[in-house]
Amino acid sequence: MTAFIARRLATGVLLLLTVCTIAFYLLYLGSDSVAHAILGAEATKADIVRFNLSHGLDKPFIEQYWNWITHAVRGDFGEPWTFTQSVTEAITSRMGVTLILASTALVFSAIVSVLLGVTAALRGGWIDRVVQVLGLVGFAVPNFLLAFLLVAVLAVQHPIFNAVGWVPPSQDFGQFMKSATLPVFALAFAGIASVSQQVRGAVKDTLQLDFVRTLRTGGLSHKRVVFKHALRNAAAPALSILGLQFVGLLGGAVIIEQIFAIPGLGQFSVSATAAKDLPAVMGIVTMTALIVIVVNLIIDLLSATLNPKVRLS
Amino acid sequence: MSDQNTITGNAPVAPRLALRDRSLILKVLTNPLGVFSAVTVTLFAFIAIFADSLVRYDPGRIDYLALNAPPSAEHWLGADGLGRDIFDRLLIGTRFTLSGALLAVLMAAIIGCTSGLLSGYFGGIWDTIGTWFTSVIQALPGLVVLLAAAAILGTNLYLAMFIFGFLLSPSFYRLTYVIVRGVRNELYVDAARVAGLSDLRIMLRHILGVVRAPIIIQAGIITSIAIAIQSGLQFLGFGDVESITWGSMLSEGFKVLTVEPLQLLWPSLLIAWVMIALIVFANTLRDELERVGARVRRATRKSMTDHVKAEAEDAIVHPEPDRQGELLLDVDQLEIGYLQATGKYNVVVHNTTLTINKGEVVGLVGESGSGKTQTALAILGLLPAGGTILDGRLVFDGIDLRNIRGKDYDKLRGARISYIPQEPMSNLDPNYTVGSQLIERLRVVMGMSKSDAKTRALQLLDKVGMPNPEKTFSSYPHEISGGQAQRVLIAAALSCEPDLIIADEPTTALDVTIQAEILELLRDLQKETGVAILLVTHNFGVVADLCDRVVVMQYGRVVESGAILDIFDNPQHPYTRELLGAILDENGAARGAYVAPTAKAGK
Q: Among A134, B19, B168, B589, which has the highest number of CB atoms less than 10 A from its own CB?
């Protein structure tokens, strides 16, 4: 198990390094045009040289990258070009909101889709058809359309929930529920639709496995075989789907935060992009990749504890 | 050159696929959902191409007399905050929205399929590169990458969709990769290679034919994702200011949501409509593909049974006056069928009669598909979904098995009838240790305490000849060999002291030397415990080694039955003779086993 964790950690670090290197290279490759865009059309050549000089863009790429990465490993993503806070501060102060939003959506969609998927696989019939149709609709209706619908009906027409804003759960839980319910639901819906179908498939596949029948021949009841053996075997594929889902949730949060005016990482990335603030964008890319890699690591470890065979591969 | 022609000419796959494709399109178009999606796609393709001639106003024209005008004859869907006609803008928006999405899909398909083909076909280093690229791309949400790109490249719709195509390529990559890996090892690809065809030609001719349909399905799904992401980007304000798209209309509509909700509704409806149509198209195509495959299978099965019915005849029963013991299992005129989509039953076992007395070892012999496993599963009450006992008697020790179900059957299984499967490795739960699986059964069936069950489990492992029972007890199934796993399954089958064990080809999946060991173990354990065994096998050598009596099945019916010596000395049915003849052609172990009945007869 230790060897497994070490291997997964090493892969994670290598992956993060690759993503950062590629991102840095591509971002700073285009920094010339960025200087033009920030300074405006009437900027002279001298203005641009001065801009590059003051932001260290005149140095060779390798030196800039080395400079960035030696600071980044210490948690310092540098000074932004347009914001007053440092990049690290700006990101950490907003990350919590996005993490709460995305993880609440993940947990919510995980619970609902496991319940739906398992019931659909075991029971069949109408609930199976509901899950199938839900999968179709959830896949075909993007989360922002659902968000519009929710806002229009449940916040504007019937003001049950807040249309905009964010109250942290630690401050006032009731207000948190009012501000978070719609964005979490809008984010989680697509997840529920696809994960419940995948869970249904995983459970159905597992029920076809030889050992399920053989366990029945040993006198174990259908219920026992399903809940003790089949579901545990179906858990590994279901978990890896949830990992992929989390990446999707972080992407979806960018738009959802914009719609509900939630001050999270997604909203920050929109304003950083609009301001063409490269250090801020680079910091966001790095942190997002880090979050995704850590979540996938956790999921790998979970499936390894559930399934002894995973540790080998 | 002539060699190549023969090989490709004989390859049955390519022409059949083409034929199937044509009928497939017809199938999709006769399905109402298929028609819905086909009409939608055609309609919007038409609008995208001819948008310029369809509009009634200049879509950029600002009309201060029509600010936020409601729907009317003049403005069918109303006008926006600058008095521009919403209907016209939706038409023009179709062009940019669809062409952007199309660009992304083409990029994704070209990159993904090419790399999938390469790494699937050649493997090795291509494989590693492909996997690594996929994980790099998946480490970031697409939207975050697109925003980062917009920071340096500015807001250009087509450029963004070009990059997005790259980000979407893993889904095509994985799809192609998996299929190509599967096809690559098919015989017809080998044949083409032997015939001297170049790799490129094989890929184009044979492999592309197979991946085509799944790629079209995937393209439908990816197009819809591209439309969603593109609209999202435009909504966030990173679209072209110049071009009108559904996404930019969303953005404008959202600003006036509280006062003019309709302006947000129209583009939302169009996006949802097109996306649903694309997903429905993909699903319909997939369903039809699966159904075509199923139909072919069913048809061959059906024709087989029809063919058999014509030449049905009565089973040859050798009289057995010296039979010992009390009747344990009585199968009489058993008929098993599977419910078809047509509502009819496909009968796989006809009028099968066999009996087992206490302590007897009965061989059920026949080639695969002859119905022997179905018979065995029917006795256990565990026929696969759709399978039913249609007729006949099934009585075990006075209990009518056709009348019990649920908990009553559970009490019988394990405790009185147990089972040894064919393939040992796949018949143990990979997530629990061998010991905990043995203990679970002992506790559930025998109601033992945990410590008693552990003692008994260790005894059993010792009894089936495991050299180190403690070690096996705490091992996971993947940590033991196939032969050991079969011993564990035999221990499990014996654990609750059943009266009858059904062994379904217990040695087929094992190495020859291990086969002999397992057969010896079964024989010893049978002598020791006196349990009755129904041994399902296709190998008369195995039968000779173990059985007192034989029942021969062919095409789902019993053709001959009797005491082992009668069958060996005087086989009546041509099929029995054929099977007996076959053991002389088999390997040494089986031929050695043929001597056994003489030895048995001696005592």
A: B168
Domain residue ranges in chain A: 2-72, 88-312
Domain boundaries, chain B: 36-292, 318-416+499-600, 425-497
Of B135, B145, B257, the CB nearest to A15: B135
Helix and strand counts by DSSP (H, E) for chain B: 24, 11
Q: Please write the tens of the pLDDT for every residue from B268-309.
A: 999 999 998 998 888 888 777 766 545 444 444 444 444 444
- State in words which class domain B318-416+499-600 has: alpha beta
Phi and psi, residue B331, nearest 5°: -105, 120
Long-range contacts of B303-307 (CB under 8 A, 24+ apart): B304/B555, B305/B346, B305/B347, B305/B348, B305/B556
* Fold category of B36-292 in CATH: MetI-like fold (1.10.3720)
| Interface residue of B137, B218, B236, B379 to substitute, partner A, most A CBs within 10 Å | B236
Q: Which CATH number fits domain A88-312: 1.20.1250.20, 1.10.10.10, 1.10.3720.10, 3.20.20.190?
A: 1.10.3720.10
Nearest-Cα distance to chain B for A256, in Å, is 10
Q: Give the pLDDT confidence of B343-367 residue by residue, as tens digits.
A: 778 888 888 889 999 999 999 998 8
CA distance A217 to chain B (A): 5
Q: Got the DSSP string for B175-202?
A: HHHHHHHHHHTSHHHHHHHHTT--HHHH
Q: Which of B261, B268, B280 sits opposite A145 (nearest CB)?
A: B268
Question: What ipTM score was computed for the predicted complex, to two decimals?
Answer: 0.87
Q: Give B153's contacts in chain A (Cβ within 8 Å).
A: 30, 33
